[in-house]
Design brief:
The chain is α+β, with helices and mostly antiparallel strands and 105 residues long. It is built from 2 helices and 5 strands; from the N terminus they run H-H-E-E-E-E-E.
Amino acid sequence: MEQPPQSPGGPKPKDDASRGATDRSQRRTPPPEGTGDEAAYFAWLREKRTPVAVEMLDGTVFRGIIEYYDRDMIKVNRLDGIGPNVFVRKKHVRVMWEESPSPSI
């Protein structure tokens, strides 16, 4: 049996650039926009009426409980009576943490 002649450099490799582009686009799906954990956490905070502190990018801190939340905003009901309840845009929040509840006397 006679084999066909090969080019001097050996068999021609497949074009990786064209093959990889189609393979990757078919294999990969974009990551989910969100996991739902944030909404579950806000729901838990609201349900338990857990006091929180929300620090804004400018350093302002609001303390209270979460009454309402959506994709872009949080409503904090202030417990200290030293200010109005506030709607806070999430994109302006630096950090938020739970605070220990005041001890009942």
